[in-house]
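Technical note accompanying the year-one report. For the benefit of new consortium partners, we illustrate the data format agreed upon in the data management plan: each record pairs a sequence with a structure-token string. No post-processing was applied to the example shown here.
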Amino acid sequence: MFYLDASAAVAAITQEAHSDRIWRWLGDNADAPILCSGWTTTEVSSALSIKVRTGAFSLEDRLSAWNSWRRFRDASLADIAVLPDHFETAARFCDRPELGLRAGDALHIAIAESGGLTLVTFDTTMARAALELGIPVEPL
């Protein structure tokens, strides 16, 4: 079972340099349970807004990508709830400065760990930290 973070989710719904890798991976794992959380949705929304602010997307592009995310999430992904314990675990991960984790990335890792899920991400810092913490990472 897999946990999709926002970097992988955004690449799946927009055209990015590595989108072909996530599309291929999704095709290869079509029968596997793939989960995301409400936190993934929050970060997808943020990433799409950043694309507008930086001029990479128009508002119309953002709306189209957002609708693509919702369709993809609803049709292809299962939800894993974000629980209070996840925040405590994420804080413990952030207590280790050598991991280089931002709070949001630590939360993704905590959610994946709690469900015994393999993390799917393009974020190399997060992937290294997850591996250091004993959480499996799917190479993309």
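Partners are asked to follow this layout when depositing records. DSSP finds seven helices and five strands in the chain.
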